[in-house]
Structure formats: structure tokens, C-alpha cells
Amino acid sequence: MTDTVKTANDADPLVEQDRSSALMTVIFLCFAGMSVALMQTLVIPIQSELPQFLGTSAANASWVVTITLLGAAVAMPIAGRLGDLFGKQRVLVGSSVLMLAGSLVCALSDTLVPVIAGRGLQGLAMGFIPVGISLMREVVPPAMATTAVAAMSATLGVGGAIGLPLSAWIVQTGDWHTLFWVATGLAVLVGLGSWFLVPHVHDGHPGTFDFGGALGLTVGLVTTLVGITKGNTWGWGSPRTVGAIVVGVLVLLAWGWYELRRTEPLCDLRVTSRRPVLLTNIAALAIGFGMMAQAIVFPQLLQLPEATGYGLGQSVLAAGLWMAPSGLMMLALAPFASWLMRTFGAKYALALGAAVLGGGYLLSFFLMSAPWQILIATLICGAGVGIGYAAMPTLIMNAVPMNEAGSAVGINALMRSVGTTVASAVMATVLTGQTSALGIPTEGAFKACFLVATFAAFLGGAVALTIPRSEQA
Questions:
Q1: Residues 291-325, buried b or exposed e (16+ Cβ, 10 A)?
Q2: How many CB atoms lie within 10 A of CB 93?
Q3: What's this model's pTM, rounded to 2 decimal places?
Q4: Fold annotation for 1-208
Q5: Whole-number pLDDT of residue 470
Q6: pLDDT tens profile 141-186
Q7: 3-state DSSP assignment of residue 441
Q8: Residue pair 417/288 in contact by the 8 Å Cβ criterion
Q9: Could you tell me the fold of the domain covering 268-473?
């Protein structure tokens, strides 16, 4: 166990560590972040086979994917607040326990309900990432902080990208349960590392946890996101879809009214409404949309039969391998993103990342006739996401008090998650809205997706340029 060196309430909240120890902490937190983020795409390669594996319908099996997105959305702001109150290292350990429990439940199950429950627990473990990001500045020297935060933030995209080929390879070489046994092993490593490698800093702050706020946020988010994610299946005009979205939005509005009247809210909306924080979160929504678009559209294009005239005829594993370098690109650009922030400022780094992401999608409109062309486009998109994701936590943490950093970063991560969820629904609607006689998306549908993603990314960049300089040090 690492000794406690200094409390977060001291004049200088940074823990004095030698460089090698700090580097080990950063490496571990990035590995753990990738492991947790991998849970989001873990079952994507077997999604079409889940009804057969679990003995259920395709509509019911889709909840195996949806529940993880919902769990992650709920967990991020709540985990951030718990970290502010009780200490971030404790919340990291707790998140690893959730990941372990969920992975074990899925590994030992063959029916729908327990697998959905396990996947929900895996989604809740996503709270690890925003808490780990906010902890970085407390446990590494100042000279390493910006790069460390950038690398940890990029793991939200890296884990998802690497998860596609890894999961496809595991499924092709063994039973589908092996996916969850691998996840179980990763959870054990994450838990042990969180206990023994992460410094035990006394960074908790006095206060009470807002259970009412947590319940309201959970109900509002889940109801709204269920309506969005199921809109394409239920029909966007169906009473279930409209009802879920309307009820969810009304609950969130009531939750906001309730939070503004709390002395110790789950999320301090007054802090969140500050222009630097609010505009960063709006940009996060747009860039999160852009990140998820490539994870949905490019694999489908790669796997369509060549007989269509525009499909590239790749296997699930091959498609994942073509996509994987984009995830590595996100992580590789962390030092460059750090240099950009130090030299020009975080808001310009965020704007550049959005512009690069949009440029990648615009290029995709013209480069979609060979797998290597898709690789180039995804590398450019990955570079944009990596730079943009790296800048957001810095903008947030520079604009909020130290005792609210975890909660604020959690809200920012939530906005990215909402962006990815909306992208999933929009891309599915576009692709299913323009189909050929064989029932597969047309070439025009893919190009429409690229244009929508381009617009979202450029919009995020334009918003980033309006972010004012923060007065909060």
C-alpha cells in the first residue's frame, strides 16, 4: 500500500512522489481506464448471435448492449461526487469491484436476465474513468499532470476501439463466455492496482451525499436514454418512444429544480452553468457524437459484401483490426495534446481536435472504396478525438473548485456518453432509413452518416472557440 503523503486540504494538494512512482501510477490508471472502457464494446462482435446464445429475441438481446450505456451514464456523475466526498482512491476500488461482479455474473450465465444484470454492473464501473482523471492532478508532479490527464481521458475512446478486434478474436477462438472470463481477469488486475498502486490520498471533503438527487438523475437519464436508444426499434413516433423521452426530460427538469435548492447537491448546477464548464460540456456532447459515429458506421461498411459495389467484404475480426489503430492513435497523441494545451491553451486544443475529427469524416465521404482508405480516415478521426478528449478535463478542472473536481469531470464524461448514445440512435436511423432491395444500407446512407458526423464535429469546434478564460485557478 502506498503511504499517504499529503492531504488535499493542504495549500499544495499534490502528492510528492518520485518520477518513477508517479509514472507507474499514470501507466496503471491508463491501463485500468482502457480495461473499464473496453466493457462498452465487449459484446459488439457477438451482438447478432446473442439471441441464439441467450435463447431470446433480438429486441430483448439488444438490452445487453443498451444497459451498459445506461449504467455508464448514471455512474459517471455519481461516482465523481462520491470521490469528492469519500476519497477518489476508494471509489476506484469500488468501481473495480462492480466490474468484477458484473463480469463474473455474465461469465457464469446462459440466460438473458442475469447477463443484463451483469452488463449493468459493468456499465456502472465506468465511473472509474472520470474519478481517475480528477485524481491525476493530486498524485503526479505538476510537470506530468497535463500529459497524464490527457492520456487518461483518451482511454474512453481507446478501450472501445481496442475492444472490437480483441472481442472478435476471443469469440472466434473460444466460447463466448471467454469474453467475460477475460473481463474478470482484467477486473482483478484493476482492483489490485487500485489498492496497491494508487496513492491513498486523503482527498475527501466534509459533506453529505444527495440520495434524492442521485435517484432523480438516475430516473431521468435512464428514461430519456431508453427512449433515444430504442427509438429506431420502437419507432420514433410510437407512444413508448415519445413517452419515455418526454417523461425523462420532465424528470430531469424537476431534478434540476430540486438540485438548485439543495445546500449540498449531487451536482452543483450553478458551477456547471458557468460559461467555461457549460460550453465545454456542450462541445463534449458534439465530440462524443463524432467518436461513436465512427465505431458504428465504419465497421458496417467494412463488413458489407463486395457484391454490393461499395461494401469491403471484411470479416468481423478483420474489420476490428482495421479499426484498432485509431484507438492507439488517441493514446499516442496525449503528449502532443499536452504540448498544445501548454502552448496555445486548452480551448484551442479542443477546437483543433474537433476540426481534425470533422476533417476525417469529410475525407471519409470520398475515401470509402478500400480498407486502407478507411484506415486513413479512422486514424484522422482518432487523432481528433484524442486531442479533443484530452483537452476537456483540463478545461473543466481549471474552472471548478478542487472539492468539486470529481463531480464536474463526471458530468463532462456524462455529456460525452450522452453524445455517443445519441450518435448510436441517429446513425442507426440514417442507415435503416435508406436501404437497398436486400435490406442493407445504401452507399448514400453511409455518406449521409459521414456528413452528419462532420457537422457535429465542426459544431463542437465552433462552440469550443467561444469558451472564455476561466477565473478559477
A1: bbbbbbbbbbbbbbeeebebbbebebbbbbbbbbb
A2: 18
A3: 0.84
A4: Growth Hormone; Chain: A; (1.20.1250)
A5: 61
A6: 887 888 888 888 877 777 777 777 888 888 777 788 999 999 999 9
A7: strand
A8: yes
A9: Growth Hormone; Chain: A; (1.20.1250)
